[in-house]
Write a structure and sequence with these properties.
About 55% of the residues are buried. It contains one helix and 27 strands. Strands 2, 3, 4, 5 and 6 form a five-stranded antiparallel beta sheet that branches. The chain has a four-stranded antiparallel beta sheet with strand order 1-27-26-25, with no helix packed on it. Strands 7-8-9-10 form a four-stranded antiparallel beta sheet, with no helix packed on it. The chain has one domain: TolB, C-terminal domain (Neuraminidase, 6 Propeller), CATH 2.120.10.30. By secondary structure, the chain is an all-beta fold.
């Protein structure tokens, strides 16, 4: 298992995200899955105490300058249209300036110099159940790309099973080889919603995967809190090594539940409902997570660089409040950084901390949004504890994802209009 000191910036579902707030399965809007997902099985709740302590950052960085969220005005500029239900954005560190956009139906498209390339970079629509909260949900490039020419995807297969796969890119940099798929990990889903969907490489070079609680309403199988399931979690695996049992990935030795008979070793964080989008701050290594709520609250969580084994509280907590439990003030729960009610939206879209150069007014600010309303908020990522971020833009867009290009400039997708948008910031 190797460690890296640097990493590329990487880093919903329309229909996906609106449905994620509901209490039951939703009607797909694209092709339905060929068969139903296997039913979940009951098991004893595992203890929630990590077996190890969080690793310290290997390369501490100076504290970032404070960011004033009230000092910025935001707007979106349309880069291109013509996308079909875009859900994820990624960009490799290869100097090409290309932006890659995943479409829910199972295609990855290239945007070069503002133009949408007609031929898909990757087309795996024939193996995907797309519609509702299913489809091609996550996209990332290997941090050593193009020396390691692999692209990673997160999708639901024809049976609704979450599938994490890699595909190689050959001599043509605009084409991935769809016939050469390496399936790294599969997770059976008990219901048709709450699939999570994000994949991102961390500053350590490992692959992080966000998974939902398996769906229905209220987490009926308690997957967010159980440690014997990969559902409702952030996972962390090493795709550059193989496991002792022949698995196509290894588990880092410092994962918090390695050696714990009651927990899956792939788990990095737990207690999540539907962490649709997540992203690393390329300056600090902090992991920011937008966790789609149930009936009342949408929340933004942060795991500071080096922290592991955090429990974000679902289904004991929703936002800052107890959910169906009389008490939820357990010290093992990590509270959100921010939360907003359903008077302001219904499906949070986690963003990222802006570290580009073109939008100086936004430098060091964390941006996130709501799919249903198009509202956009800013907060100071350097501030610990609860924040009340100001609403800075009522965009009117059906924002489904945020993502960075190679230089750290920030983009978003509009699921309904099929547009790739560029974020523009000016001093207010």
């Amino acid at each position: 298992m190797r460690m890296r000191a640097t990493f590329p910036a990487l880093v919903a579902t329309a229909i996906l995200l609106v449905a994620a707030c509901g209490n039951a399965d939703t009607t797909p809007t694209a092709s339905p899955p060929a068969s139903a997902s296997p039913a979940a099985t009951d098991s004893t709740e595992a203890p929630l105490t990590p077996s190890g302590t969080p690793p310290a950052p290997t390369d501490p960085t100076p504290p970032p300058e404070p960011f004033d969220p009230t000092s910025v005005s935001l707007s979106f500029e349309v880069v291109t249209g013509g996308l079909e239900a875009p859900l994820a954005i990624a960009a490799p560190s290869d100097g090409s300036g290309r932006i890659f956009v995943a479409e829910q139906i199972g295609r990855v498209r290239i945007v070069r110099d503002g133009d949408l390339i007609e031929t898909p970079f990757l087309d795996i629509a024939d193996r995907i159940a797309a519609g509702g909260e299913r489809g091609l949900l996550g996209l990332a490039f290997h941090p050593d790309y193009p020396d390691d020419p692999r692209v990673l995807v997160n999708y639901t297969d024809r049976n609704g099973t979450t599938t994490i796969s890699s595909f190689p890119v050959g001599d043509d940099p605009d084409r991935a080889d769809a016939s050469n798929e390496t399936v790294l990990l599969t997770i059976q889903q008990p219901y048709g919603n709450h699939n999570g969907g994000a994949v991102a490489f961390g500053p350590d070079g490992y692959l992080y995967i966000s998974t939902g609680d398996g769906g229905s309403g209220g987490d009926p199988h308690d997957n967010g809190q159980r440690l014997d399931t990969l559902l409702g979690k952030i996972l962390r695996i090493d795709i550059d090594a193989t496991g002792g049992g022949g698995e196509p990935y290894d588990v880092p030795d410092d994962n918090p539940f390695v050696g714990d008979a009651n927990g899956r070793p792939e788990i990095w964080h737990s207690g999540l409902r539907n962490p649709w989008r997540m992203g690393f701050d390329r300056a600090t290594g902090d992991l920011w997570i937008g966790d789609v709520g149930q009936g009342s609250w949408e929340e933004v969580d942060v795991a500071r660089a080096g922290a592991s084994g955090l429990n974000f509280g679902w289904n004991r907590m929703e936002g800052f409040e107890c959910f169906q439990f009389a008490r939820c003030d357990d010290p093992k729960f990590t509270a959100p950084v921010a939360a907003y009610g359903h008077d302001l939206g219904c499906s949070v879209v986690g963003g990222t901390v802006y570290r580009g150069e073109e939008q100086a007014a936004l430098a060091g600010g964390y941006v996130f949004a709501d799919y249903c309303t198009g509202n956009v908020w800013l907060l100071d990522p350097a501030t610990d504890g609860r924040q009340n971020p100001p609403l800075v833009l009522e965009s009117g867009h059906g924002i489904s994802a945020f993502g960075e290009n190679e230089l750290g400039e920030l983009f978003a997708t509009d699921l309904g209009s099929g547009e790739l948008l560029r974020l523009v910031a000016t001093p207010s």
